[in-house]
Structures are given as C-alpha cells and as structure tokens.
Amino acid sequence: MNPWLNDLGCHIYFDRITPIDEHGHDAAPSTYRYHCAGCGRDHDEYVRLADCVRDARRHIEE
User: What pTM did the predictor assign?
Assistant: First the structure.
C-alpha cells in the first residue's frame, strides 16, 4: 500500500522550490511544499523538509 494515499482519494506530491537568479544559480535556500491531488489542499514555504513531510503525513492520516 502507498503510504501517501488514503481511502478518501488523497494523494500527496512533494516539491522542492529553489529560487534561481538570471544566471541559473541558486538565489536563496530551497523551501518545500506538498500538494494533495485528491482534495486540493496544499501548503508551501516549509524551510525544513521534515516539517513538510510531517504535515503531509498528518493530512493523510486525518
């Protein structure tokens, strides 16, 4: 069973957001986001990946 999918159809996707400058170099530290394809919930701008994963897991287990 997929741990990021629940019986209500919620399915989690994660993104890492890295701002880049006009030369293609990292312009700031990365942030993280999750999006639920089932219900549309999304949260972004997590500084730590662990915090993003924790909140996404909480959503799946609701």
Answer: 0.81
Question: How large is the average pLDDT for residues 28-49?
Answer: 93
How far is the C-alpha of 27 from the C-alpha of 15, rounded, in Å?
A: 17
| CB neighbourhood size of 27 (10 A) | 11
The SS3 of residue 41 is coil
Give ∠ CA 10-35-62 in degrees, rounded to 5. Answer: 40
CB atoms closer than 10 angstroms to residue 57: 13
Give me 13's structure tokens. Answer: 């996707």
Q: Which residues contact 28 (CB under 8 A, 6 or more apart)?
A: 18, 19
